[in-house]
């Protein structure tokens, strides 16, 4: 965060007073109300207001702002706006694939193809029509990365898959939310040096909360300890995605929720499946794809549901899992 | 009689220069109020108490003193009269002049309304649309269409005044990174197409509008933490005051969402939640001031959270009790028992509470007529609710019959 000594247009007396009172960074001022500033720095109300406004102006200067038209031009100049998923209908609905600069969540019950889909998307990075040495970060929380499977699946892509490609996948094994946030904060160098074009976290809900909070021990059902971390985790992931304009993909499992009271869409006492980690996390991802298993007659049918997307409505895409990966099946085939 | 002779403040003949009736003059003298200085700092109630005169008389006397002073020296328009120029402004005297208007003013100058493109909602519940003079909160579960509505409103605000629109521009403050400019492009193109269909006139106000001009009227801000969010709101008022006159005025400010950066980092530090409440209510005050001063709609998106009360689990707007009282209007986006999207108006100035159905189609946020909802729900009984191809296009809608651009 910006240091106060870099803020222009501050009165010398106030600058000195800020320094003496231990105000070094802009948030130190913004965090406080006018009355708190008046008390701490011995100012009158007008001076306190002026101080807040000057600091605010200085912060606002560095905020990214532009007209929507300019934003569109900027995006159109970018050659990497979407990561093609290889499923034509999904790509069409999402206007080209998994969007860059945002966080996409792949949710589904156990063994429904989440990791396969993640591998599939990783391989698509190598399938792009560029000569650049693109890299991938795979943050593995369950030791789910299966190199042999990736090599097997690589036959599906058109580019020749070599050991060099495998070398370009950087895998990080972590266990806790704190590790993840720490890792993400130090990620910039990796992204720049290895030309990273995709970040995958598989899976986000397997992370342990290492924080030692008293209320967590006394009240194990209190999940408040995790909630601030989830928000921070989401903000860090989003910032990384946007700063480098790359897609971030996280996988998550479903959990059962027993609804005992009023909810807007379910009746009392029904049990149903929701993505794990709760509503706060649900709000935090930009796009959510749910992998569903359902039985139609005798045959099992898998579908991808676009559950949340800023660009398209809810829709379903049938797919199948083969040794070569994840493939779309056409609607006619499914009916037949 | 001669004020110029000596220090006007201690002029002993001061009372004689005042046009006050004899009874009151005696009472003033009895109370020891003879010179201009004696009157310094007196208010209507304190003067009436000290001189034992009615409030009305006290007000007249003070007004006369102020009028007199007005000819001799500059008097500031403070509630308590300051009779001397030497008085330095102290902490107490720092207050902004308060704008006063009568009920009649408000009646004669109706506020503009921002249409949502859901006619059932606009006409039947909102009395024309979202009011352009207050803060409106839009809550909803993830993925229901809050951002879609936000993008739609950023476009709708540009409907020309000749057609009953706001004819303004939009500020979109994106805290979540969900603003998709390609989607806004589609919404704008469809909206423009709709406007051109309505007017049918080549010479009309719509003819010089283009999708590009509509996009350039949406100012986009990307916010990465709550410090930036607060700072931006702090300077917004100043920025709007300095906005160039020749550009369309800002008529809607959308914050999508106000919640995201306030849901982490606060519950770990001591006193964090109290700080959060303070910061939020401060921000909300500034937003309603902006809404009022510039007659623009301020839309804040809020997330939902789960609450447990007596072992009953339910969904409620995030950010807690204090926040829930801050906004003037409240819309709640939710699914009804049939999994239909509906918007529930829970608090509205000059309107009716209730709920109406909506859907998100390729063209944007649209309403579904009540009759159609009933028909569909009958039809649903023999259909798979989670059927394939439930995307926007499949929902029959009057707007949807038009070709997509």
Automatic annotation (TrEMBL), chain A:
Ranges for region Disordered: 209-228
UniProt GO BP: double-strand break repair via homologous recombination
Lineage top rank: taxon: Eukaryota
SMART domains to which the protein is assigned, alphabetical: AAA
Protein name: DNA repair protein RAD51
Pfam families reported in the protein's UniProt record: Rad51
This protein's UniProt keywords: ATP-binding, Nucleotide-binding
Organism: Acrasis kona
TrEMBL record, chain B:
Pfam families: Rad51
Keywords of the record: ATP-binding, DNA damage, DNA repair, Nucleotide-binding, Nucleus
Biased composition (Acidic residues): 373-385
SMART domains hit by this protein: AAA (SM00382)
Spans annotated as Disordered: 373-405
PANTHER family given in the database record: DNA REPAIR PROTEIN RAD51 HOMOLOG 3, DNA REPAIR PROTEIN RAD51 HOMOLOG 3 RAD51C
Name listed for the protein in its UniProt record: DNA repair protein RAD51 homolog 3
Organism: Acrasis kona
């Amino acid at each position: 965060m910006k240091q106060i000594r870099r803020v222009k247009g501050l009165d010398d007396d106030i600058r000195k007073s800020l320094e003496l009172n231990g105000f070094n960074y802009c948030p130190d001022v913004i965090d406080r109300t006018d009355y708190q500033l008046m008390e701490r720095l011995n100012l009158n109300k007008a001076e306190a207001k002026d101080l807040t406004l000057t600091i605010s102006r200085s912060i606002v200067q560095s905020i990214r702002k532009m007209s929507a038209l300019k934003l569109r031009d900027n995006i159109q100049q970018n050659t990497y706006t979407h990561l093609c998923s290889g499923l034509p209908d999904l790509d069409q609905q999402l206007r080209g694939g998994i969007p860059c600069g945002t966080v996409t969540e792949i949710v589904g019950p156990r063994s429904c193809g989440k990791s396969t889909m993640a591998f599939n998307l990783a391989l698509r990075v190598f399938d792009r029509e560029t000569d650049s040495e693109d890299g991938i970060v795979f943050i593995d929380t369950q030791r789910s990365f299966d190199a042999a499977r990736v090599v097997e699946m690589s036959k599906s892509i058109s580019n020749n898959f070599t050991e060099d490609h495998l070398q370009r996948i950087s895998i990080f094994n972590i266990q806790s939310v704190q590790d993840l946030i720490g890792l993400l904060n130090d990620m910039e160098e990796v992204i720049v040096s290895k030309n990273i074009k995709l970040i995958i976290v598989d899976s986000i809900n397997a992370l342990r909360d290492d924080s030692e909070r008293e209320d967590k021990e006394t009240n194990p059902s209190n999940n408040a300890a995790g909630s601030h971390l989830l928000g921070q985790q989401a903000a860090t992931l989003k910032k990384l995605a946007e700063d480098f304009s790359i897609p971030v993909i996280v996988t998550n499992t479903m959990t059962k929720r027993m609804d005992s009271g009023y909810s807007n869409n379910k009746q009392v006492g029904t049990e149903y499946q929701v993505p794990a980690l709760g509503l706060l996390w649900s709000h935090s991802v930009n796009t959510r794809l749910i992998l569903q298993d359902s039985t139609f007659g005798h045959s099992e049918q898998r579908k991808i549901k676009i559950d949340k997307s800023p660009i398209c409505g809810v829709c379903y895409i049938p797919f199948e899992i083969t040794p070569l990966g994840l493939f779309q099946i056409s609607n006619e085939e499914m009916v037949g | 009689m001669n004020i110029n002779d000596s220090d006007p403040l201690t002029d002993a003949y001061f009372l004689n220069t005042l046009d006050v009736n004899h009874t009151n003059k005696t009472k003033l003298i009895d109370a020891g109020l003879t010179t201009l200085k004696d009157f310094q700092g007196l208010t209507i109630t304190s003067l009436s108490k000290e001189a034992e005169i009615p409030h009305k008389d006290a007000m007249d006397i003070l007004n006369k003193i102020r009028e007199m002073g007005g000819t001799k020296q500059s008097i500031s328009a403070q509630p308590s009269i300051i009779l001397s120029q030497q008085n330095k402004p102290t902490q107490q005297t720092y207050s902004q002049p308060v704008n006063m208007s009568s009920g009649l003013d408000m009646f004669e100058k109706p506020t503009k309304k921002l249409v949502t493109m859901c006619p059932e909602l606009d006409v039947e519940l909102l009395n024309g649309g979202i009011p352009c003079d207050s803060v409106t909160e839009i809550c909803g579960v993830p993925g229901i269409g809050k951002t879609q509505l936000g993008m739609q409103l950023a476009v709708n605000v540009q409907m020309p005044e000749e057609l009953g629109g706001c004819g303004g521009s939009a500020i979109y403050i994106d805290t979540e990174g969900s603003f998709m400019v390609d989607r806004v492009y589609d919404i704008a193109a469809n909206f423009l197409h709709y406007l051109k269909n309505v007017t049918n006139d080549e010479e009309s106000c719509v003819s010089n509008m283009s999708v590009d001009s509509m996009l350039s009227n949406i100012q986009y801000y990307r916010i990465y933490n709550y410090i930036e969010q607060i700072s931006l709101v702090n300077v917004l008022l100043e920025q709007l005051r300095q906005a160039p006159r020749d550009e369309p005025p800002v008529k809607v400010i959308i914050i999508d969402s106000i919640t995201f950066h306030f849901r982490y980092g606060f519950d770990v530090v001591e006193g964090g939640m109290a700080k959060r409440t303070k910061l939020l209510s401060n921000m909300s005050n500034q937003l309603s001031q902006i809404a009022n001063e510039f007659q623009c709609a301020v839309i804040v998106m809020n997330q939902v959270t789960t609450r447990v009360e007596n072992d009953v689990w339910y969904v409620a707007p995030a950010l807690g009790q204090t926040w829930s009282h801050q906004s003037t209007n409240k819309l709640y986006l939710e699914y009804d028992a049939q999994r239909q999207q509906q918007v529930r108006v829970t608090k509205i100035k000059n309107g009716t509470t209730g709920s109406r159905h909506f859907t998100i189609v390729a063209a944007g946020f649209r309403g579904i007529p009540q009759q159609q909802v009933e028909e569909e729900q009958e039809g649903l009984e023999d259909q798979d609710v989670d059927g394939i191809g439930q995307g926007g296009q499949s929902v029959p809608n009057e707007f949807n019959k038009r070709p997509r651009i």
